Amino acid sequence: MKTCTLSINNKKVTVEAGTTILEAAKSAGYYIPTLCNHPDQAIKANCRICVVEDKTSGKFVASCSTMVYEGADIHTNTKEVRELQTGILELILANHPNDCLNCIRNESCELRKLCERFHVRNYNLAHETDIYPIDNTSGVLVRDRNKCIKCLRCVEACQEAQMVGVLSPSYRSVNTNISAGFGENYDETLCTFCGQCSAVCPVGAIYEYDETEKVWEALHDPKKHVIVQTAPAVRVGLGEEFGMPRGSKVTGKMVSALKMLGFDKVFDTDFAADLTIMEEGYELLSRIKNGGTLPMITSCSPGWINYAEGFYPELLDHLSTCKSPQQMFGAVAKTYYAKKAGIDPADIFTVSVMPCTAKKFECKRPEMNASGYRDVDVALTTRELARLIKNAGIDFTNLEDEDFDSIMGASTGAAVIFGATGGVMEAALRTVYEVVTGKTLENIEFDEVRGLDGIKEATIDLDGTPVKVAVAHGLANAYKVMEMIKNGQAKDYTFIEIMSCTGGCAGGGGQPVGANKSIKERRIDTIYNIDKEMPIRKSHENPEIKLLYDEFLGEPNGHLSHELLHTHYHQRVKR
Amino acid sequence: MGKSLSILTKNFNNINVDTVDDYLAAGGYEGLKKVLSLTPGEVIEVIKDSGLRGRGGAAFPTGKKWEQAAKVKEDSYILCNADEGEPGTFKDRYFLEYDPYRIIEGMTIAAYAVGGREGYLYVREEYGRQKEIVLKAIEAAKAAGFLGDNILGTDLSFDIKVISGAGAFICGETTALIQSIEGGSGRPKIKFQRTAVSGLFGRPTLANNVESYCVVPALFTKDAQAYLSQGTEKSRGTKVISLCGNVEKPGVYEVPFGITLREIIYDLGGGIKDGRDFKFAQIGGASGPIIPKSMLDIPYTYEDFGKEGYSLGTGAILVADDTNSVAEFMVTVQEFFVHESCGKCTPCREGNRQLLKLAHKIADRKATVEDFLTVKRIANVMNKCSFCGLGTAAPTAMVTAIQHFYDMYN
Ligand SMILES: Cc1cc2nc3c(=O)[nH]c(=O)nc-3n(C[C@H](O)[C@H](O)[C@H](O)COP(=O)(O)O)c2cc1C
Ligand code: SF4
Ligand code: SF4
Ligand code: SF4
Ligand code: SF4
Ligand code: FES
Predict the structure, then answer these.
(1) Active site residue A36
(2) pLDDT, tens digit, 9 for 90 and up, residues B238-267
(3) Is the pLDDT reported for residue B410 higher than 70?
(4) pLDDT tens readout for residues A103-134
(5) Is there a single domain that holds both residue B87 and residue B161?
């Protein structure tokens, strides 16, 4: 490793050559303020708040985009540096609504935190804010361009990590703003609602369409039987909203909190994930046996579904017809559970808690009413659940653990790993192998499909038949896979998992903001640890799933399953 | 010193540019012929020895830039910046219109010196007529064997594409210009490698101003002596300036470095129009300083202007007579920058917005002492923190105006 020794605020530090001054300062114990910088993204260098003084060259430079060099004499907090940084902050505030009290990002806003740090109390600049209409027609994401500080993190997420290209900077100078399509609202574009733009926005300019009030209303309605399901990745993200270490496992506390909030039953989407594996596994086997379209691609990530429907309408036959676990849960809840519990499904209100904004879009799709009712009434993000808990005054961090309710609360290790990229594939392989071979799978951990590589591959020996699978996460990687399929270069793959977000649901667009790759990795590690600790780690061994098939569905991929648990896809066009 | 020189500008209005013949008759392509008898290294030495500094505004030593480009093994794109967006600047237009072959020859010499096969000439959108002239000249040069394969029977092959500018001032900045040619948004872009290593289409690129290329042929002909004998030790040769505003004879002049502003305005420009009094001049375009009467005797050189903290910029000189208000002028300049800021970075986007408001306040005679201090404070942030040269230079006019006309309310 080539290194470089320089001085930061008169302290010698040695760092790898090619490190930015920003990173080098961090290793010397100094935080330089940043706004446009995001560790997972390309360097943009447009906010300029990270300015520092290079006394060697006599220049002031942006530390996020300037590399260290041998002998550099860098100062990060001299009088003038602080004046310049404060000056930039004031320039931003002069164009900002400064509406923190009413702002959804109040607690997690990077701009507000910088104001705290720089003691911006009063400044004498002319206040001139932008006046754009709020884009809230999608019912999924909200864009308030008036709060936008033009850092372009959302654009980078949408164009590079996701390659969807809905967001772009438009106009110039003081009219610069981020437009969706050509200035239209999200729902007039081919936005996938992955929510990655909202997850990287440093301020309250892009956020989830908040539906906590609807949930309160249901909870307060004595006629309603309100049940809730929680997705696998929520239990490793939620704690972060309460200041717990990133990636803390808070399953038990989450269940307690939900019970305290007044949900009549607290169920687990993991149960439905096991159900998905049964359905999807049998669908795969049937496609292999009957010459169906292969490779088959997973369908549990609604951002991915939106992408496929928007950009690859000609390849929709490759998608598994299985609904996502969220929707399978809803359909089963308002049929099987309603019957078993003796409750009129019209009185059941299903809430889901998801790491995902696209799940809001999914549950609002007109076809998601297989039970005869809205299968899922409201989908909340992890962030909104935290809001409910805080609203109710619950001391989350000190809660005792509680268990999910029966009969849609039991789950397996295979289900929880749905929350990580590669997890659905691994869970499916655990079941498919045993169903096909009739043998017990000894080594159930498929390391080849784990981790943050963009596209992962593995070949599994199914009793002499090698089956080639691939896993992609982040829509930019989905694009690569789809182009391969389109060009006939993916014929030897049998099964492909695609997740819309980098890291899978652990890095979903509805998770606590401020995540980056290493934080996503921590969440993923916790997910795999939970799997390890589970007594049952294969979906087909889930006793409640067995019961569901015995008592209600009959067989996987059967007639009733198709009615309730499967769907079909359509081309999405711009409105 | 009563009239302007004609070394670089000797062909202005003197030759027919429809064919290459007149250019040849006037000694054109003698430079290239000489160059082809030298090694590329020797050519670059000549450029370095001439002390030539880029005429596009930043005054970067041209020889050094060529040396960096020559070091890169692959071919370089030879880029000529004819965007000429700085207000009051129109000298490159004259070269395009009256001496297009000189630009072509200069670029061809560059191709030989640094190694390049493809050239791009980026012409300001408004210069439609000049673009046609250059296109025609390129065809004529090609027909005569001065462009294309095996130029003058040598191994040198070089061709030039002409691109129409995107119409924004910022597109003259090299990284924005490159983005604009590539079909991008025409905003400056962060770079971690020199343009010489990674420029247009991510490939090695040599980018120079029109006038910079036009100096080059002269350095290899008998004009060299005439050119190099002009100027001062640190600012050698001549500079082509565009003089405009309230002067009797506005226009393009070739002046020796070291001439004073007074000589330029009164001797070359015929003095202030209608016999009025001089109030101020802005040097180098909208990005340049405002200069009062007391500074008219500063020699027009890099070093003398540098001592004041100013640069010569593009060579524009805008003269304002005593009917003009400094404060009103600040408003005009600031309006220009609010219009032209690309909006990418905070200091420039927001700083210009604030400065325009303050300029209005000053012009309306409502400004307080605090407001003047605020101008200074914001200007400092813009100057030290902006992403590109547009934002760093944008407050220059206001700051210098306040500095020199602090008593403007009286
Ligand atoms: C806002 C802005 C506009 C510019 N416009 C021009 C221009 O129109 N023509 C030009 O030659 N250089 C322009 N430049 C300077 C170029 O970035 C670059 O320094 C120059 O073209 C290099 O050529 P030179 O070394 O021959 O001067 C501009 C710079 C900035 C910051
Ligand atoms: S975005 Fe941040 S600074 Fe702006 S109003 Fe919201 S909390 Fe306050
Ligand atoms: S939700 Fe996803 S696709 Fe839609 S604009 Fe945001 S990043 Fe782009
Ligand atoms: S919407 Fe948010 S992420 Fe996008 S540019 Fe504005 S502040 Fe940055
Ligand atoms: S200084 Fe910043 S906003 Fe201004 S033109 Fe340059 S990059 Fe754009
Ligand atoms: S963090 Fe460096 S410019 Fe924005």
Answers:
(1) no
(2) 999 999 999 999 999 999 999 999 999 999
(3) no
(4) 999 999 999 999 999 988 778 999 999 999 99
(5) yes
Q: How far is the C-alpha of A126 from the C-alpha of A145, rounded, in Å?
A: 19
- Nearest atom in ligand 2 to the alpha carbon of residue A100 is 8
Distance B291 CA to ligand 1 centre (A): 22
Domains in chain A (CATH in brackets) are 3-93 (3.10.20.740), 126-208 (3.30.70.20), 213-565 (3.40.50.1780)
Output the average pLDDT for chain A: 96
> Cis link prior to A394 (omega < 30° from 0)?
no
Chain B residues with CB-CB distance to A124 below 8 A: 370, 374
pLDDT digits (tens, 9 = 90+) for B9-52: 999 999 999 999 999 999 999 999 999 999 999 999 999 999 99
Enter the DSSP assignment of A159.
Answer: I
Q: Has residue B117 been placed in a domain?
A: yes
Whether residue B115 lies inside any domain: the answer is yes
Residue B338 shares a structural domain with residue B219: no
- Please count the structural domains in chain B: 3
B9 lies in a domain? no
Residues B45 and B92 in one domain: yes
Q: Are residues B363 and B341 in the same domain?
A: yes
List pLDDT tens digits, range A483-512: 999 999 999 999 999 999 999 999 999 999
Q: For chain A, how many residues are written?
A: 575
CATH number for the domain spanning B332: value is 1.20.1440.230
Distance of CA A210 to the CA centre of its chain: 16
Q: Are residues B116 and B176 in the same domain?
A: yes
A186 has pLDDT over 60: yes
Residues B146-169, buried b or exposed e (16+ Cβ, 10 A)?
bbeeebeeeebebbbebbebbebb
Query: Which residues does residue B260 pair with via DSSP β-bridges, in sequence order?
Result: B299
Of B330, B354, B339, B328, which Cα lies nearest the Cα of B390?
A: B339
Domain that holds residue B334: 326-409
Mean pLDDT of chain B: 96
Task: Using the predicted structure, report yes or no on whether residue B2 has a pLDDT greater than 70.
Answer: no
Last residue in a domain, options B305, B321, B337: B321
ipTM of the complex: 0.94
How far does the centroid of ligand 4 lie from the alpha carbon of residue A205, in Å? 6
pLDDT of residue B325 exceeding 80:
yes
pLDDT (tens digit, 9 = 90+) per residue, A420-429?
999 999 999 9
On the CB side of A176, CA atoms within 13 Å amount to 27
- Active site residue: A110, A208, A362, A426, which one? A362
Q: Which of A80, A83, A116, A367 is catalytic?
A: A367
| Residues in contact with ligand 3 (CB, 6 Å cut-off) | A 141, 157-158, 162, 164, 166-167, 191-197
Higher per-residue pLDDT: A79 or A463 = A79
The pLDDT assigned to A1 comes to 82
Question: Going by CA atoms, what residue is nearest to atom 8 of ligand 1?
Answer: B84
* Banded pLDDT at A392 (limits 50, 70, 90): very high
Of B344, B354, B381, the CB nearest to A46: B344
Distance between Cα B172 and ligand 1 center (Å): 5
Residue B353 CA, ligand 6 centroid: distance in Å: 20
Q: Answer yes or no: do B190 and A45 touch at CB < 8 A.
A: yes
Order the strands of the B316-321 sheet from edge to edge.
B251-256, B238-245, B316-321, B278-283, B290-292
A496 sits in which H/E element: strand A495-499
Distances (CA, A) of B380 to A389, B285, B335, B351: 47, 20, 19, 10
Q: Report pLDDT for A184.
A: 75
- Asked, for residue B74, whether it belongs to a domain, the answer is yes
Query: Testing the interface with B: which of A172, A177, A178, A179 to mutate, by most B Cβ within 10 A?
Result: A172
pTM, two decimal places: 0.95
Top residue of A67, A89, A173, A203 to mutate, by most chain B CBs within 10 Å, is A173
- B163 & B91 share domain: yes
Catalytic pick among A103, A194, A322, A505: A505
DSSP H or E run through B82:
strand B77-82
